[in-house]
Design a protein that fits this description.
With 437 residues, the protein is α/β, with parallel strands linked by helices. The protein folds into two domains: 178 residues, FAD/NAD(P)-binding domain, CATH 3.50.50.60; 133 residues, 3-Layer(bba) Sandwich (FAD/NAD(P)-binding domain). The chain is built from eleven helices and 25 strands. The strands form eight sheets. The protein has a five-stranded parallel sheet, with helices on one face. It has a four-stranded parallel sheet with strand order 13-12-11-17. Strand 12, helix 8 and strand 13 form a beta-alpha-beta unit. Helix 3 packs parallel to helix 10, helix 3 packs across helix 11 and helix 7 packs parallel to helix 8. The two termini are 38 Å apart.
Length: 437
């Protein structure tokens, strides 16, 4: 798996070309559409997908009224939360606000929880009791956890064995547990089966926790118990673990008894499918996932727990005038990543603006790049470009690939640098966050 399809220069060149289109805000939206019809769009969720959709609706047609509903005044990203766990960044680095959306683009930001959606009446009910009417609704609800999907693991258990898969207090909790752990302790991470948010995330996480251990608790060990036998960028991760950390990280796939079936959070113990029991000093459980709560309330999720969408526009196949972007959607082969959510949101914004103006939506194209850090100065990546082929979302043949396995330290160092540049550029594009030097 994950063999390079084209060389690095070709991949980055193609991404640059598609990225330039989105950066210009054109996306093929007819100029007449920008000045013509408008309406009221409510966007629920202020992460990569929701904030981008709100911003680009206003960029494509400032006459469109946009209301962004987001419970929190700040959004903490899952990307780069592993850098915080590894001691390489502070939480403030992954915190983003909504001032630019309000002050520069005129988005009406409401800090409340969207509790229900009435698709027939085109209304969203908020935790404040207010009902907000919409012409079009964009949901970017992210993920929620399937608390019935793993025996013994619920919200109470997560306070002892954190998931840290929604960045914020859980991330702080996990880092405090790592700092309190004795040198020579055992850290166990349970990785879920597909699909889940940020496919390379568990593997970058153990990498950067290994970096922290190497610096501060060198006799400690990491056991990664996995519910599957293959994972994103697997050869690159495993090469890097061996090269940088020796035998500190042990990965166990499902067929080798890595599938955790129950959790005893009080005793920081897990049981696997074949009956093995493992006790940790710090236990990190990444549980089964599904589309965020409001997607289910809106009636757009199906029996899989995720949201089917029309490939060209990301409008729900279940309820008219509701569009869904980001991790909640069924959009494979696109991964559940922040970059994809950002790209999907721009396509949704252009589709809505075009429809208001009475035009067909422009052809959609999405791209994705995901960097992972194995250690400071040691980065790897995967990239892909996607479009609709024969009515389905498909990866453009020859468009993507992963970092080469056999390369030098300078290449890995550049990819680590690109990772920082990617994150800061994406954050500015989404929330307007600007970083110092």
């Amino acid at each position: 798996m994950d063999q390079p399809l084209i060389n690095r220069r070709q991949a980055l060149g193609l991404l640059g070309a598609t990225g330039a289109v989105t950066a210009l805000g054109s996306l093929g939206v007819p100029m007449t559409a920008r000045a013509a019809g408008a309406g009221h769009v409510v966007v629920v969720g202020g992460g990569f997908g929701g904030a981008t959709a709100a911003k680009f609706l206003k960029r494509f047609n400032p006459a469109v009224e946009v209301t962004l509903v987001e419970a929190s005044e700040h959004f903490y990203t899952c990307p780069f939360s592993n850098w915080y766990l590894g001691g390489l960044r502070e939480m403030a680095y992954i915190r983003h606000g909504y001032d630019e959306l309000k002050d520069r683009y005129g988005v009406h930001v409401v800090h409340a929880t969207a509790e229900d959606v009435d698709g027939d009446r085109h209304e969203v009910r908020l935790s404040t009791g207010e009902r907000v009417r919409y012409d079009k609704l964009v949901l970017s609800p992210g993920i929620d956890f399937d608390w019935d999907g793993l025996d013994g693991y619920d919200e109470a258990a997560a306070e002892k064995a954190p998931h840290a898969w929604k960045a914020g207090e859980q991330t702080r909790l996990l880092r405090s547990q790592l700092e309190a752990m004795d040198d020579g302790g055992l850290f166990i991470l349970r990785a879920p089966d597909n699909p889940f948010r940020c496919p390379p995330g568990p593997y970058e996480r153990v990498s950067l926790i290994a970096h922290y251990f190497k610096e501060h608790k060198p006799r400690s060990k990491i056991l990664l118990l996995d519910a599957k036998d293959n994972f994103s960028k697997q050869p690159l991760f495993m090469d890097g673990w061996e090269q940088v950390y020796g035998d500190m990280i042990e990965w166990v796939g499902a067929s080798q008894d890595g599938n955790v079936i129950s959790v005893d959070a009080d005793n920081l113990t897990v049981e696997t499918e074949f009956g093995s029991r493992h006790q940790a000093d710090v236990l990190n459980i990444v549980p089964p996932q599904q589309a965020g709560f409001i997607a289910h309330r809106a009636g757009v999720a199906d029996d899989s727990g995720w949201v089917p969408v029309k490939p060209q526009t990301f409008e729900s196949t279940q309820v008219d005038d509701i569009y869904v972007v980001g991790d909640a959607t069924i959009a494979a082969p696109m991964p559940k990543s922040g970059f994809c959510a950002n790209a999907q949101a721009k396509v949704v914004a252009s589709a809505i603006v075009s429809e208001f103006a009475g035009h067909e939506p422009p052809p959609a194209i999405w791209n994705n790049t995901c960097y992972s850090l194995i250690a400071p100065g040691y980065g790897i990546s995967v990239a892909g470009v996607y479009k609709v082929i024969d009515g389905q979302i498909a990866e453009v043949p020859g468009s993507g690939g992963v970092s080469p396995r056999d390369t030098d330290e300078a290449f890995r160092a550049r990819e680590a640098e690109y990772a920082v540049n990617w994150y800061e550029a994406m954050s500015e594009d989404t929330w307007g966050t600007r970083f110092r030097g």
